[in-house]
Amino acid sequence: MARLGQRIGSFAVLALAGLLAACSIDDSGPVRSVWRPADGKPTYTAVVYLTDRQPDPQAAGGFGSHWADEASCGTAETVIPAALLVGEKPQYGYVAKTWPGACATDKGLLAGVVAEIQAQAKARNCNSVFLFVHGFHTGFDNSVLRAAQIAHDAQTGCAVATFSWSSEVELRRYIADVEHSQYAEPLLAELLRELAAANLHVNILAHSIGDRMVLSVLSGFARSPFPVKGGFIDELVLAAGDVGVEKDNDDFAHLLHDATPYVRRTTIYASSIDSVLTISKGAHGGVPRLGREPEADLQYRADGKTHIVDVIDASDVPADILDHSYFTMSYEAVADMSLALAGVPTADRLTAIDGWKPTLVCTDVKNGPCGSDARYALAAGKGRQPRLISRILVKLVPLIPF
Questions:
Q1: Tell me: the pLDDT tens digits for 276-286?
Q2: CA distances, 190 to each of 143, 164, 264 (Å)
Q3: Which of 185, 291, 382, 386 could form a disulfide with 241 if both were Cys (CB 3.0 to 4.6 A apart)?
Q4: Phi, psi torsion values for 92, nearest 5 degrees
Q5: Model-level pTM?
Q6: Where are the domains of the chain?
Q7: Per residue in 271-309, pLDDT tens?
């Protein structure tokens, strides 16, 4: 039996390796809009960046994958192509130019970054910032481009920023990414602290390991002797969260509790066929991950005057080969995030709003009619189910001996 188990495990490894052979692309896919305007033209967005990566003139966007142990700041001009038409030659987003800036001023360690965000917001007659914190397997250029794409596609409408920690663009370097994410948390904490002090309204989209980073930082605020303004984050969106949700040892429950004073509403997106989080579960000794447990996540829902937690099942929409980046590559997810980031309640997203089609469907937890025990899922378009390869991957990964 042991030999049989080893053979099954070996077969799973080989099969998985074959399926992932084409997955060397940063963040599992090229960046382009999920929408297509009538003229088919690309969009241009300026993104304020803060990174702890080493500068590298040869790397896309000017920063490589190595940790620098110091901050670099500036603004990047991005070009995001429109969604492709059938038969059209593929086009990919790119960073057209970067303008380095000062991180620190006499007003704070990251006052230069905050000032650039404030200037961008003022030019758009608003006082908020959309901040993207990326996850595993993401380079500097991709973090900037994803921030620009989501800001445009979800119509966030004000300043746009990204926090780009030193993730490496290699699937086999997951543990190195986890380590580097921890090195970056003090810098992220300083950014959030100074954004709160500047009285900016902050909306955050975090992905994968980025979820863990944001929650860890907010948990640290809860224990800090230096107070941070309460409720400074209007909307916190946690997509494909790589955070432990083990029964009787629930890391996420603790982190969420600690983050509550700083966040008005939290939205969780989870997919039961997320292959990256299936791998992560094995790497973490079998501990389930937040972003792969849409049914179990319902326990975290809260509806109160000061904090709301919504759970959205994203299992039924298409994405990349690993089903980990649906939050940017599925128009169903982007459309719903647009409304979530605008503060629209889940119940209101079941019907058409200002020209938007319903972005959610609802059933009872026991799959009956939608009632008081509501379960929300992304409303998938006709014929828009996840690819067969995603379903195969999620079955193969648990067979691998970690």
A1: 898 889 889 99
A2: 19, 14, 20
A3: 291
A4: -125, 150
A5: 0.90
A6: 2-343+382-399
A7: 998 888 988 898 899 999 999 999 999 999 876 666 899
